[in-house]
Each structure stands twice: as structure tokens, then as C-alpha cells.
């Protein structure tokens, strides 16, 4: 029988709630910090399949989360498309050449850069308990494109937004290329053992409504359609961070199997406005998990109660912070696991 998380993503509204946390494999865990100190930087860890599998499994062993999320990065796709990728201490990721200055056609694809990620999935799936769900992921095209165009992250994605307005044809070509590689990348993860996949659109909230339709909804709908045609039983979670009132349109028009919501969304509003029966994932503020106390319990229960009428995966509104105390995570898990609708 599939685990609780997979059943929930497929539409079952069970009395209890599955739980996993975005970035659950990471720097808040002492076992992760020890392995990273031994192995070196972030990208070498991602490309050491045995180490990446170990990191993916660490939070499952410690907390028993219902899902194991692949330890990797959304920028593996542009890396496979031919951009150089490096993670600089204190600065974050850098891609080169920047597509604001260079044509997409100047890149030479290196698809073999995806192979170690598939091996990580295979290793995790082989070691994962049968009741736990293996989660793969990729970045959504708009968010990936913001890094490819600017070469790094930014507060408002101004270079990419300006390019999309200035030369929509060239920008459409970038989006289309990302869609093609992302479909193949997710398919490779599924073939290696991923039972559900998530699309992270971290910068979806920076776009005006018409641009949101073109650069968020349309490419995500294309990915969903192609993955569903090839793997009809594999749920796809869409997480368009910052979408606000555009969230119901995203859910309807992309036809994702589940929608992830960030901490700025009122769960009562989401439960009312999202398509009936659609599984929802989220949406505790990661800073509230860091702070703990009575307010953590109050808001976690508010989220659980708000989504009692539909399938719900308890999660954070974004990634867990690196200074989050282990005991706060344990307290949250006890609360979620003790709740019944």
C-alpha cells in the first residue's frame, strides 16, 4: 500500500496528515554539517551520489518524515544546458555566461550532468522504508530563467523581467528550452524511483498578471501535461511562491495534482478559493518554527483545521532555516502527528 504522503497527493483525505519540510535535508542538522565538512562544498556534495543519498535520508532517520526530498539544486538544469555553475561562499550560486549578454544558442548542452542526480534517486529509493515517499523536484522555468539571464539571484529579478518585456521572442526561446530539459529531467528522476515531483517557482510573485500567465502558468502547464502523459500515476506538486490572489488560477490552469502555498497565504482563504478536493501543501512560516512557543502551536493547528475538508500535506511556507533548533522540529512533528480531523 502506498505511504500516507503519496495517497494524500493522489487525493485521499485521510484522518491524519503526512508531513515533510522543504529543505529538511540541510544545515540545521548536525549530521549534515559533519558530512559537508568532510566532503567539501555544496556542488561536490550534489555530484557525489552516495553522499547526496545519505543527506536525503538523514532527516528520515532522525524524524521519520513521510517524504524524502532529493538533495540537489534547481540550477542543475541550466548546468546541464551548458552554463557553468559555481557556489561561492557568502554569495550563493553564479551561472555563466549570463543570457542577458549571450545568446541561448551559445550554450552547448551537457546532458550527462544529470546522470549523477538519477543515481542519487536510485540509491535513496533502494534504502527508503516502503511507507515513505521519494520526492523528486526541479525549478519552474520562470525561476530557472531568472538565474540563467542574470547569472545570479536578485531581489526583484529586474534584469530578467526587463528582458522578457524588451525581447519576448528571445525570452520565450529560453523558457521553451528550460521546459524541454525539465520534462526530461523529471522523467529521469521518476524512472529512477521518484514517486512524486515538485516544481519550485521561488520568484513567481515578482510578475505582473499578464506576465504571470505567460511565464509561470503556461510553461508549468506544459510540463504538467507532458509528465502526466508519460507518468499518469505520478503526482506533480506546483509551488508558485508569492502568487497571492493568482494562486487559484495557477491551480486551475496548470492542472497540478497538488499546490504548495507559502506563509503569506491565509489558509482559510486558500481552503475556500482553491479548486474543491485539490490537495494542498503548506504553509507554516519557517520563522515561526525557528521561534517556537505557543504561537507555533496555535498557527500549526489553524493550518491543520483550515484544510480539514481536503487532502493536506503539512509543510512550511518555504525552506527550513539553518539555525532552526532540532527540538522545535520535534515539537511540531508531535503536534501534527497527534492531530486528527
List the helices and strands and how they pair.
Elements: H1 4-9, H2 30-39, H3 42-46, H4 49-63, E1 67-69, H5 76-81, E2 84-88, E3 92-96, H6 115-127, E4 133-139, H7 141-150, H8 158-166, H9 168-192, E5 196-201, H10 209-230, E6 236-240, H11 247-254, E7 258-260, H12 267-273, E8 280-284, H13 286-291, H14 294-306, E9 312-316, H15 326-338
Helix pairs in contact: 4-6, 6-9, 7-8, 7-9, 8-9, 9-10, 10-11
What attributes does this structure have?
TIM Barrel; two-stranded antiparallel ribbon; globular; alpha/beta; 15 helices; 9 strands; 341 residues
Structure explained in plain terms:
- This protein has 341 residues and is an alpha/beta fold.
- The protein has a single domain, classed as TIM Barrel (Alpha-Beta Barrel).
- Helix content is 49%, strand content 13%.
- The chain has a 7-stranded parallel beta sheet with strand order 1-4-5-6-7-8-9. The chain has a two-stranded antiparallel ribbon with strand order 2-3.
- Helix 8 packs across helix 9 and helix 9 runs parallel beside helix 10.
- It is globular.
- 45% of the residues are buried.
- The model has no long low-confidence stretch (mean pLDDT 96).
Amino acid at each position: 500500500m502506498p505511504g500516507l504522503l503519496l495517497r494524500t497527493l493522489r487525493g485521499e483525505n485521510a484522518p491524519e496528515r503526512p508531513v515533510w519540510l522543504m529543505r529538511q535535508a540541510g544545515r540545521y542538522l548536525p549530521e549534515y554539517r559533519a558530512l559537508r565538512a568532510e566532503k567539501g562544498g555544496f556542488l561536490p556534495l550534489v555530484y557525489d551520489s552516495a553522499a547526496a543519498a545519505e543527506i536525503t535520508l538523514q532527516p528520515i532517520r532522525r524524524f521519520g518524515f513521510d517524504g524524502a526530498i532529493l538533495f540537489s539544486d534547481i540550477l542543475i538544469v541550466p548546468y546541464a544546458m551548458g552554463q557553468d555553475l559555481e557556489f561561492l561562499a557568502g554569495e550563493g550560486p553564479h551561472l555563466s555566461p549570463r543570457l542577458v549578454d549571450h545568446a541561448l544558442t551559445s550554450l552547448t548542452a551537457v546532458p550527462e550532468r544529470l546522470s549523477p542526480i538519477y543515481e542519487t534517486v536510485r540509491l535513496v529509493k533502494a534504502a527508503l522504508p516502503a511507507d515513505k515517499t521519494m520526492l523528486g523536484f526541479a525549478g519552474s522555468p520562470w525561476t530557472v530563467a531568472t538565474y540563467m539571464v542574470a547569472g545570479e539571484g536578485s531581489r526583484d529579478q529586474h534584469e530578467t523581467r526587463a528582458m522578457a518585456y524588451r525581447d519576448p521572442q528571445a525570452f520565450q526561446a529560453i523558457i521553451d528550452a528550460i521546459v524541454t530539459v525539465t520534462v526530461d529531467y523529471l522523467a529521469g528522476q521518476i524512472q529512477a524511483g521518484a514517486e512524486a515531483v515538485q516544481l519550485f517557482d521561488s520568484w513567481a510573485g515578482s510578475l505582473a498578471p499578464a506576465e504571470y500567465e505567460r511565464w509561470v502558468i503556461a510553461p508549468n502547464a506544459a510540463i504538467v501535461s507532458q509528465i502526466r502523459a508519460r507518468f499518469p500515476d505520478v503526482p506533480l506538486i506546483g509551488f508558485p511562491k508569492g502568487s497571492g490572489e493568482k494562486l487559484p488560477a495557477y491551480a486551475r490552469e496548470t492542472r497540478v495534482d497538488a499546490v504548495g502555498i507559502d506563509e503569506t497565504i491565509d489558509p482559510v482563504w486558500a481552503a475556500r478559493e482553491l479548486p474543491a478536493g485539490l490537495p494542498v501543501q503548506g504553509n507554516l512560516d519557517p520563522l515561526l518554527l525557528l521561534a517556537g512557543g505557543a504561537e507555533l502551536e496555535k498557527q500549526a493547528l489553524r493550518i491543520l483545521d483550515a484544510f480539514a475538508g481536503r487532502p493536506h500535506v503539512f509543510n512550511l511556507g518555504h525552506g527550513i532555516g539553518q539555525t532552526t533548533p532540532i527540538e522545535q522540529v520535534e515539537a511540531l512533528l508531535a503536534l501534527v502527528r497527534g492531530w486528527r480531523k
